[in-house]
Amino acid sequence: MNHHHEDLCEKCEELMQPFLDRQLDDAERARAERHLADCGYCARRYRFEESLRRFVRSACSESMSPGLKEKLRALRTPL
Fold first, then answer.
1. Are 49 and 16 within 8 A, CB to CB?
2. CA–CA separation, 2 vs 20, rounded Å?
3. pLDDT at position 24, please?
4. What is the mean pLDDT of residues 19-48?
């Protein structure tokens, strides 16, 4: 991997969360999309982050059973 590519990966790392949050301006978004199209490593990281967000959203929307809540309560330790 050359230095220029490493710089692009580093910039992509900075932009990953704002990209996923759709907070980038058009120029930044286009730059991130170009890099993701050309860099398999960053594209895999993006897909992982996107999948993780979907998983967390679905996990947060499921209600917890009373039995599980009680088990978690029993695991608490006093401060």
1. yes
2. 26
3. 92
4. 92
- Closest by alpha carbon to 46, among 36, 35, 31? 36
Please report, for residues 49, 52, 58, the alpha-carbon distance to residue 36 in angstroms, rounded to integers and kept in the order given. Answer: 13, 18, 26
Would you state the structure tokens that stand for residue 35, as one six-digit string? Answer: 């890099």
Both tokens of residue 79? Answer: 């401060």
Let me know: does 15 contact 45? Beta carbons within 8 Å.
no
Alpha helices in 21-76 (DSSP H): 26-38, 40-61, 66-75
pLDDT for 79 beyond 70: no
| Lowest pLDDT segment from 37-41, 48-52, 58-62, 70-74 | 58-62
